[in-house]
User: What shape does this take?
Amino acid sequence: MRLVLAGFGVVGQSFAALLEHKEKELASAYGLVPRIVAVVDSTGSVLDERGLDLSRVVRSKKRNGSLQTAGDRRTTSEIIAQTEADVMVETTPTNFRTGEPGLGHIRAAFISKKSVITCNKGPLGIAFHALRELARHNSVEFRYSGAVGGGTPILDFGRTCSIGDEITKVTGILNGTCNFILTKMEQDHLGFQRALALAQKEGYAEKDPSLDINGFDSAVKLAIIANHLSLSRATVRDVRVKGIAEISPGDVDRAAAKGDAVRLLATADGGELSVAPVVIRRDDPLCVSGTYNAVKFHCRYSGPKVIVGKGAGGPETASSLLRDLIEIRGSMAGESTK
Ligand code: HSE
Assistant: This one.
């Protein structure tokens, strides 16, 4: 299977490492032999239709700080459209306002009949239904399980909960960076800025971390969940958002003294979507620590169900991209991988 990688930062490089590490297993268990024919990002592009040596590409990007362009003057979307491949894996940084460059990359891939796997939240938060329609129109696959929950299959779990039942409400902690900061403030008495610097160092935070702190990252993930589960057709712009910037060490300590904790909670209740810091009981299953995410699906007939797992990180998100790739391989071969 020929792949184009668009985006080659923390997640893109973790995906490349995972493919290499699991090479034998992918071939024997799934008949999946990925061949990376192009890598493009904001720094340049490398192409080889026989398949790139990804370790070399990683080493070269680390050494030079950029991909080598070899004089290619085409835009990244033109390269994506003009390269013969089956699947594009899109991991460029999220732009919550325009969705670019991810939105243009995904459109270019669909129009040139490539399936798409992405963990890029911007395009999904802005143009969810338009992209799904475009994929359908071009008879290609569109997978995005890593866009919510990093490596934790929150979207798949929610879909499974809804089969034979009805989801009436969703509540959850959807941002690893904010949860990490609140946990560090509470457990290690770190100041807000020091906790944020640690989250940035670990690669959890967005390129612009104010998007985590102000609640927009949680809002876009909530919109994706609501659309994926057909609870609402809202975009990220329809979510009422309040972040954690005004949470003080005093707020965190006062909650802790009562056996509670401050958490940034995202809620989809009927058509209403909101994100805000709230005080929750420490024994609530949603009260997770560190970069963990937790989502509760309230089901009309079977009651609430909770999924918990790490919500951010390169290797974690790469595992979701690979899960999507294995599923695409299965559907191309007409098999079910479930
Ligand atoms: N910045 C995001 C977070 C990354 O902290 O949850 C994963 O989407």
Observations:
- The longest helix spans residues 314-332.
- The CA atoms of residues 112 and 273 lie 35 Å apart.
- The first strand starts at residue 2 and ends at 6.
